[in-house]
Design a protein that fits this description.
mainly alpha; TerB-like; disordered C terminus
Length: about 170
Amino acid sequence: MLDRVRDFFRSAMQPPEEGEAADEGGPTAHGHPDVRLAACALMLELAWADDDFTDDERAHLEGAVRRHWGLESSRAEELVDLAERARRDATDLYQFTRLIREHYSLGQKMVLAEILWGLVYADGELSAREDYLMRKISGLLDLEIAYLSEARNRARSSGTAPDGPFVVD
């Protein structure tokens, strides 16, 4: 599996050569490439929190991955597959949240929190486990309760993921 992760990042997320435009979703566009795998793994962990990864949740997750990192469908599916494997192999969430905390600005973490809340509400239900996991993730990302509530309210009222890339600086 580690070889597949390396191959994915080598082929899809290498920085552009001098004078070239940024590769779709390349590191120069959105930061450290491992952060994408970490964020996607958190999305998947949340999607599976209630033991039912619905079609609506899957559509929300795949749309967010394509839209926010500018990936084509095949690359987005590959990232989701790799993130699912990483999620299953992980012993805790810290390895994912640490990368995000280190490489995302407060604004980027807020956008991610809103996407995560959108994923929670994608199936129309909020389980106690999803609520607990969102609070845990927010704590690990050093997001204050006020920011978490704001992201939750925006996601709940819109019913969709926020538009635009993770880069909000």
